[in-house]
Structure formats: C-alpha cells, structure tokens
Amino acid sequence: xxxxxxxxxxxxxxxxxxxxxxxxxxxxxxxxxxxxxxxxxxxxxxxxxxxxxxxxxxxxxxxxxxxxxxxxxxxxxxxxxxxxxxxxxxxxxxxxxxxxxxxxxxxxxxxxxxxxxxxxxxxxxxxxxxxxxxxxxxxxxxxxxxxxxxxxxxxxxxxxxxxxxxxxxxxxxxxxxxxxxxxxxxxxxxxxxxxxxxxxxxxxxxxxxxxxxxxxxxxxxxxxxxxxxxxxxxxxxxxxxxxxxxxxxxxxxxxxxxxxxxxxxxxxxxxxxxxxxxxxxxxxxxxxxxxxxxxxxxxxxxxxxxxxxxxxxxxxxxxxxxxxxxxxxxxxxxxxxxxxxxxxxxxxxxxxxxxxxxxxxxxxxxxxxxxxxxxxxxxxxxxxxxxxxxxxxxxxxxxxxxxxxxxxxxxxxxxxxxxxxxxx
Length: 424
What we know:
The chain is of the alpha+beta class. 44% of the residues lie in helices and 19% in strands. It contains 13 helices and 12 strands. The strands form 2 sheets. Strands 1, 2, 3, 4, 5, 6, 7 and 12 form an 8-stranded mixed β-sheet that branches.
C-alpha cells in the first residue's frame, strides 16, 4: 500500500486527527510529541515522507478483575495515554522496530518460530504478531517503525497490549487493507502475548486497547466475544478516574500471575471443564469439600472471587446505565475487597517488607474517607491501583498520594473515544 502522508507537507491533516484523540488542553503538547516522532524516525531510518501514523491506547480495567481468562465478563476503557508510531514499508524481509529509549528490535520474516529466550521482551510481541499474519496467509512485508509511548511500563495500563494492538494495526493497514476487525486485532495480540511473550493473559487488555471507549465484554465464547459500548462520563458524576503507581515492579512476578489461572484450572478439572464459565456456581459450592482437598483453599477462594466479580460487572453496567453512580462506587469497593481477600493479588506470596500495593490502597482509602472508591488494578501484586476521586478532593488526594509514593505517581485519566487507529 502506498503511504500518501508526508509530514513535511501534510502536518495540518495530522493535527486535525490529533485533536480527535486528545483533550483540547493536551493537543499542543501532543503536536510537539508527534513532531518528535517524525524526528526520531528520520534520525533512525532516513526520510519519513512516506510513513503512516498509528496510535494505540493503554487500557484501564474498570470491572472484572482476572475474570477474562475464565471466559467471564469485564468492564474496560481505553485511556488518553498511548503508544504512537511512524511506520513505512522497507522493501525487505526484515522488520525493524525502534522504541524511543530502548535498543532496536529486529525480526527476520523468514524466522517466525517461538524463541524462548525472547520471553517477556518486546521483540517477542513483534515476532508473534508477524507469525499470526503469516500463518493466516496474509500479505507480509518488512517495515521500519519508530515508536514513543506515554503508557509507562508496569503501570497496569497494559503497555504490552497497546504495543500488540499498535503492531496489529500496522500489519493490517500497510499490507492487508484493514481486513481485520478490532476484535480480531485484539485476539492477534493475545496470541502473541500467550505464545511468544510467554504470559498466560486473558483477552481484556487487548480488547480494551483495540476497541476503544468504555466497553463491557462477555467472553463466554472467547472466539466471538460480545462487545457493548457504554457511554458514561465520570466527570459528569463529579469524580475523576485516577491510576496510582504503587512503585512496585512486575519483574520476577510471572509465577504469581500464572498461579491464578493455574489454580483455577485445577478447580475446573474436577468438573472436567477448562474454565470457570463452564462450571455452574451451584455445582462449585456443592463440591467445596472435595475441591479443598484436591486444589487447596487459595484456589477455592480465587474461584469464589471470579464468580462474584462476574456478577458485579453486570451490576456495574446496569448501575451506570441508569445513572446510579453511588451503586457503581459500592461495587468498585466490593470488587477491591474481593481481590484482596479472595483472589489475593495484592501482596505477593512471602513478601514482608515490600507491600507497595497494599500500602497504596490503604493510603487511598484513608484519604477518601468513605467517599469515592479504590481497588487493585489489573493483574495486581505490583503496578497500580485505581481510584474514583470526588473532584473537590482531587488536588489534595493527588498531592498526598505523591508525597508518600513519589512525584508523578498519581495519574488523572480520561476515557479515550477510540482504540487502535491509523491517524492519516
């Protein structure tokens, strides 16, 4: 496909597209950021006059903590932090991906097998995405891409899913005439993450980034998830959506994340099933004595959380649709307590001195003083928490959280209306 956009000649068109993605007050800074993107591409690869421009947002999980990998229900939204890319075909059988501030990733399109030494590295996502398109018989050529990101790693906003959706959009748009839908691009990203990146994630992260806006998703049929848009403005309800970085790092916690679906799989095996969505809750509770013996108490408690959080997502969606924000907040609190008590993804096993997520939650609860709501966010164990903060408390809440956790650790976000996209 011929990329007809020329930054030198057509930047005005891009500025119009930028204005549709970001808050008006942020547009000037974003324009400077995109100019820096082209500068980085030019310094790395030469002229960018034939480059296409892409953006993929981070996502926030609003409801349904660790329910997606059990084919459950979630409530998610794309946010106004994103990864952007300038990308252009290079006429070779090689993909070169230069992410600002990191070493270049290079993938030979004639070598698309899984490389175990690449687990947990961005190059594995690039290779895995290319492999999916190749195995589907799609057109596949080499390209050069330069990226820069405001979705900070370890943020719980899923920088890996944003990268997967970004790369999927590049392959889809440059070489395949946008044949893949946002849902398919999310599934491609999950494939790359599960098989090549080595992380057994569900589909929530990729769907939240790919589809855009606030959505509720039912994964009962994981190949054909049911996605419904939900139009709600938290600001109109007098609250700000905050994501707070606890300061804890996800590194070396892969085993903790893998243990959650692993233990739930043992519960399901008792019934001859693969995921909890296939097991009736009545049958689960009737089998508790046997499940405790076979799977252990933590696995049983984690299953209890999944059943309850699936129900909570339905209730959250209903509350938002009828404008009952107080009920929504009560359900956020319930979900957070369930994650802490039953799912147990706040403090990693064996941690004593370092309990950053627990501290961040406790501090947020104290500052909110019965108003708003907070909960662990995303995978848990490290990374971030989420808080819905009354606007009249926001300045003090942010200042106090950052006084304890560090400057820049409390991020005030808005829901972005679109997911992964080619801008021009």
